[in-house]
Amino acid sequence: MLPGQSGQRPVLCSANRLFLQAFVSVMIPFTMAAQNPLAEDPKAAKAGEYEFRINCALCHGLGARGGGRGPDLTRAQKKYAHNDAEMFQIISSGIPGTAMPANGTNGQGVGMTDEEIWQIITYIRSQETKSSATASGDAAHGKELFFGDGNCSLCHMVSGKGGRLGPDLTGVAGSRTRDAIIDSIRNPSRRLAWGLTEATKEFPQEYESVTVVTADGKQIKGVTLNEDSFTVQIMDPAEHIYLLEKAKLKSFRKSRESAMPKYNTDVLSDKDVEDLVAFMASVGTK
Amino acid sequence: MTISVILAQGFNRRGRRVLPQRSRTRAYSLSVFLIVTSFVARSHAQVTFERLLNSANEPQNWLTYSGSYSGQRFSKLEQISTGNARTMVAKWVYQTAATGKIETTPLVVDGILYATAQDDRAFALDARTGRPIWMYQRQLPGDIRPCCGRVNRGLAILGDKVFFGTLDAHVIALDAKTGARVWDVNAADYRTGHSFTVAPLAVKNLIVIGVSGGEYGVRGFIDAYDADSGERKWRFYTVPGPGEPGHDTWEGDSWKVGGAPAWNTGTYDPATNQIFWPTGNPSPSNRGEGRAGDNLYSNSLLALDADTGKLNWYFQFTKHDEHDWDATQVPVLIESAGKKLIAQADRNGFFYTLDRTTGKLLSATPYAKITWTDRKDADGRPVANKNASPTLQGHTVCPGALGATNFMAPTYDPQSGFFYVTARDQCDIFSTAPQPYEPGHAFYGSAYFPSEEAEPYLGFLKAIDPTTGEMKMKFQHTSPTWSGTLSTGGGLVFSGDAEGNFIAFDASSLKPLWHFQMGGAVYAAPMAFAADGKEYVAIAAGSAIYAFGLP
Lengths: 286, 551
Fold this sequence. Notes:
- The complex is a heterodimer of chains A (286) and B (551).
- In chain A, 33% of the residues lie in helices and 12% in strands.
- Chain A has helices spanning 14-27, 29-32, 42-55, 57-60, 84-93, 114-127, 139-147, 172-175, 178-186, 270-282; strands at 157-158, 161-162, 209-213, 219-227, 231-235, 241-245, 251-255.
- In chain A, a hairpin with a 5-residue loop joins strand 3 and strand 4 (219-227).
- The termini of chain A are far apart.
- Chain B is mostly beta strands and 551 residues long.
- In chain B, the strands form ten sheets. A five-stranded mixed sheet of chain B has the order 1-32-33-34-35, with no helix packed on it. A four-stranded antiparallel sheet of chain B has the order 2-38-37-36, with no helix packed on it. In chain B, strands 3-4-5-6 form a four-stranded antiparallel sheet, with no helix packed on it.
- The longest helix of chain B has 18 residues, at 26-43.
- At the A-B interface, helix 3 of A face strand 6, strand 29 and strand 35 of B.
């Protein structure tokens, strides 16, 4: 059949279609269930652990505790999923605009059956710490630091306020562990956004630092928005965007030293950092 | 309307366009008619085994997955060359309207391009325009268990039929003129994780195909089917059963779920009537406990008698693999100084050259970052260090789980003498945990993660001297790519990248001469063909097939 000739396909009469729908909903209880049919079944949790290691641990880490790329799933309160049905939906379809892929599309693990997805949810529930992970710091002071002396908002945005050079941190506490956030403040160069596999590289920016000299001798310093072998897209600290062909540049130098300064304890005390984490946890994580 | 009439009209229209005004004479029209007639007759010609044997004599066509039985993926075509590659333009794009990765290598026979796409689509296009002639799509069950996307890497053609394997583990033959199904054979149970993603290989009157499913603990096999009837002529189990040689390399009953799939297309040596077919990982892929032994014939190159499927020799690249390092790379036949070689850039990071008559190892040389071995046995084969095994909490090993290369097709250019391969430097943390086998459920016994401490992943196109294994040149991509490679008589190597570029390189320097942004990452390998005397280079990217040529 040539593409576009769908008119040749048999069209189900509505009675047949109703029957088919009824048939499907009877045959596939796992899909239609609003509640986890395997909830709190220890055998399912064990099976889910195997599946989790294969399909999820790449980003969410062993034991679902977060891997720096994907959120810690052991927290009872999650950013996107408020119940098992939503969790099923997210695992099946992914989260648009994030690195969370739809089931079977990340090109790495195998696709999961509906039963296996419910097993994974059962496993994740079994790993949850029941306390909601409220940060211990002072969110109000963290907010002052973020928009004031900490200078964070020069480059980072939260809830629509701040700069564009660095990643938008709205809701970051919902997708990164506390330790990962603290590490990013103390050692920003240790882990740029590298390491996302190609298949999950929905958003390609890695925030590498870049210095180029254009044909007319102008030096541009900034971070890469994107890059391929022949072109580079750069934002400088004044938030100008430059779209450049590498072949036309006098020089092109890239570095994995983050453009963000290292915030050691002289600049931000451990308490200050906890306060910043508390501030980030207080916005956009619902 | 028959295909021949459509083609004759298309050809006629194009033919008239290039004619000067004064040539509109009866005589000229007659000669055009004769050309058309001969062309049409040609398009009816059957793709015989003799044509496959002598595919080098018809470089306008691309008759097998790798372009020839040697697996060299080299096209003699030289119209597009180092001198004019910078002027290349896109000629047409065919959108498959499917999602997910497209890994196909098209075939071209006498002006018609045949290819596959996601979800087991197959189609035939006018190779000059990309306009579809027919399209077939498999009605797949909802519960198929493909491993790594609903992918297919291509077709085989023989006689007047094209052949492909499906994600529900059928082998089917389609009429090359209509796409109508001629026969359909169920090779294995898809519900236990069997599937086909490989492009079959037509040899004599047999359609040879290897199974996928190393993620599900299948017992791997390579099958040969009669091209006319679909009758299975032989099956070689890549995991030997009780009483067969090699069975004692498996602990207890582990052989029953031993894996060793055969999911990439092999090659054929007519001189010895041997099919060379590589195999994949033992199952579970990342847990060696419970399957003590070498686990033959996982991660091996098999030399099989084409008529009987009998094993002549084997060479195992990675014994008792615990890192998912399938040896499913195309084994390339190379003639060098009177020696009959077979060369394979293996997923484990070593480039192997063997005597293909005997299977004797001649050299094994690293071509990417490796940490799993620092010694070789008496035969020159790298031996795994004890501490390279995965641990419960995880342990960094290079190459990573995706390997130093993977299924990306390499190319050997007899003009430059180099073997070109897509390579990556990447390390992963490998962990292992016990996992019971359950039919149809993923069976890895493990997890792996990017190593936080390692450098960013690096991707390359590398040129290797296959006689020594020495790496001679490299081009670094912005990030690792899944694209295969093609070399041509024009002194060019073609490959694609993860950022969506299709790139023409100077084969002697790996300097990029031209590129085109296709808007989607490449998971396929390029091929070349000619139609109406014009050379084209084609590749799949994103969800489409692109054809390029000179303006």
